[in-house]
Amino acid sequence: MRRVAVVGIGHTFFGNLSEFDLVDVLAFASGNALDDAGILAERKIIEQVIVANIGGGILSHQTGIASSLVSRMDMEPAMAELVENGPASGASAVKLGFMAVASGMVDTVMVTGGELMRTVTGWEATDFVATLLHPEAEYNLGLTLPAFGGMFTRMYMERYGVTERELAMVAVKDHDNAAKNPFAHVQIPVTLDAIHDNENANVVNNFVAEPLRLYGMCPVTDGAATVILCAADSPKMKYFTKRPPVYITGIGSATDTHCVHNRKDPLVLDAVRLAAERAYAMAKLTPADISFAELHDAFVILELAISEEVGLFPRGKSREAVVAGVTRLEGRMPINTSGGLKAKGHPTGATGVSQVFELVKQLRGGAAKENRQVKDPKHGLAVNFGGFGNNVVATICSKEPTW
Amino acid sequence: MVDFSMYEEAVPSVFAYKCPTCGTLYHPVPMVCRKCNARRDPSGVIYSAWEKVPLEGRCRLLTWTRVWNLPEGYDVKYLLFGIAEFENGLRASGRLLVDDPETGMSLYAKAGVVKKKGDKELYGLMLDRTP
Amino acid sequence: MAGEELETKLRPPLLDMKPYPPKVITLASGEKMVVREAKRSELGVLLGSIYPLLGAPRDFYDLVAARMYGELLAWYRYRVVNEFVLVGAIDGVIGGIVNSRMVDSRVGMSYHTIAIERGLRVGAQLFAAKMEHHLDYLGQEEVWIVAESPIGFKRWMIEYELEDRSSQFPKVWHELGGVPTFVLTRKLYDAVKSQKVTGSRPVDPALLATADKLKMPTEYPQLPGFKRERS
């Protein structure tokens, strides 16, 4: 396998972009990454474009989106395909881009993930995301991803004793980080008093899917992100002198049962653990080597559960790390320095790519100017959670190659 | 001959499926048996379509939620949902008709109408108090 | 007819309206929003706060601003009877305004809700305060409601389970025009009150004093690049 370097990254503002065309939004992130890589004028050296998007056909009434992006960016005749893996589409697209380069088939890939979710009402967006569920056994009942988030939160609280206050602390951390991230959807810091302790908190932070509350779940967001990959041994690396390369040293994914009720133990996220194990094995690393992580906190409980499943904390014990401040920016294991899905936002097709964007930015030292730099990071882990945990991708990026 | 029963008023039903070779029960039904690799053909032409077994009866509530933000098409304040386990070990998600549920409580599952798609009624599992 | 007599003829009879007791809500950001009744003498700052939104077409802001502008002027000049206005102020700066009126002792007619501050559910809190005033403090039995924004309206319809009286048109006909009219009855209000209405009373005098002199916002999320020409 060839070494794969990330040589350019780009991002749009996350928020309400529904007045814009979907492919324009994808193209804007792409242009930002090409600029970052220093190859805007030489963009035709990109041989393969991979786009991550779930809902273009449903929400924007557009299909053939990857082909459309190539033309919008005047990047013909690059090869181009769309990848869909629910909310893990972005990381899957990065994985397939990695595979294309690592296998030797191409030297350069541009991966762009994006979604416009605010082109429809919140109820329609909820319904659209719910199409990930099993049609007869789950979707027809009216179940939604937040409903499973609520049930998962309840089970987790009953088994491990995590409290609503501890979940609120995770939200406070995410908002603090997002307030410093110029691309984040929600840049308003929130206080623990306001969303939990205060007597008004029950209404201000109302239930969405009990016991999950408003400030325990991500907003509905539009946006796009892009990463550009190049084989580290390719002569084309001569084009990429503007920024230090960062390496994708490990990447893996795994699936689990479609229906949540058929998991062996619904609280054990087998797909997360296996995806991470595969990524660690490829990178020849262990959880102890990880400096920071971007974990898929569409519901804040998932930040806790995933951090345990990937081995950053013992099972059931991540709440102690939250209380001790270990996962804050200045802590030993910063998690979701971007603000996470909770406050940065979650345009479903973009998220996985946005997570890799953040890993690369931190490893380059690029978050320093935003006052949210992790101290001397070496390896970052991203986990992108598809469906309700039935298809998960884990990606490890490193400042230096590990193989 | 024609099966005229198809014109009778439909009764809400939710089924588990039984592998014709090893008898394992499934909900929802796969296309290959996990235990004995027997294949299923929904049309029943090449392989068996597998026997349908009504999914109903006593069960235990494993977890639940009250959802306040529902998808498009549900114009009610909230709905309750739960995951229940039957005595035979099968599990299923269902609509919870109990307003003050508790994890571990005994329930009775029965099929009900969950929504309408045009003229067609769609069925799902309703979890209610034991009679 | 003498001028004063004409003026009296044009002013409809007033009902005895109990004042709204101020409360404070801690918003998610930790900021404290004082919710209190506005006085007629504060019309200038209210109108000045709404005025820029006449140029914001997204989410029906322009229409709601235009209608509220007229309703506030009518309130001031006694051409709409028994109207009340509540404001939400954060450090004295107006974050949102709601207005409404009593038709009689039983029925309230909800007018409008404008949230200037975004991202902190100010609109939802002020709408709930408006219903609180009608039903808890003015002692009414039901409030008639319509809305310009279909999304906003659907939210109220679902979250408050409003009673649909559109089939009783024209007997039930909201003053703002059109069908359908939905109604929040006392029974429906009592069922949602604990989830919708919040706030702490009494307000600490020092905090209340920050809302004594209301200020117009200097920024509008709805109008990027807005600059207020005169303070």
Question: Could you write a compact summary of the structure shown?
Answer:
The complex is a heterotrimer of chains A (403), B (131) and C (231). Chain A is of the alpha/beta class and 403 residues long.
Folded structure, characterized:
Chain A is an alpha/beta fold. Chain A has a domain at 4-120 and 220-239: Peroxisomal Thiolase, Chain A, domain 1 (3-Layer(aba) Sandwich), CATH 3.40.47. Chain A is built from 14 helices and eleven strands. Chain A has helices at 22-37, 56-59, 65-72, 89-102, 122-130, 145-160, 164-178, 192-197, 201-204, 270-283, 300-309, 318-324, 340-344, 351-364; strands at residues 4-11, 48-52, 79-83, 108-115, 207-209, 212-213, 223-231, 246-255, 292-295, 379-386, 391-398. Chain A has a nine-stranded mixed β-sheet, with helices on both faces. A two-stranded antiparallel ribbon of chain A has the order 5-6. In chain A, α1 crosses α3 and α4 packs across α14. The longest helix of chain A has 16 residues, at 22-37. The model of chain A has no long low-confidence stretch (mean pLDDT 97). Chain B has two domains: 12-54; 57-129, OB fold (Dihydrolipoamide Acetyltransferase, E2P) (Beta Barrel). Chain B contains no helices and eight strands. Chain B has a five-stranded mixed β-barrel. Chain B has a three-stranded antiparallel β-sheet with strand order 2-1-3, with no helix packed on it. Chain B starts with 14 loop residues before the first strand and ends with a strand. In chain B, 27% of the residues are buried. The mean pLDDT of chain B is 95. Chain C has an eight-stranded mixed β-sheet, with helices on both faces. Chain C is built from seven helices and eight strands. Chains in contact: A-B, A-C, B-C. At the A-B interface, α5, α6 and β5 of A face β4, β5, β6 and β8 of B.
Short key terms for the protein model shown above:
heterotrimer, B: 131 residues, mainly beta, OB fold (Dihydrolipoamide Acetyltransferase, E2P), 2 domains, five-stranded mixed barrel, three-stranded antiparallel sheet, globular, C: 231 residues, alpha+beta, Aminopeptidase, 7 helices, 8 strands
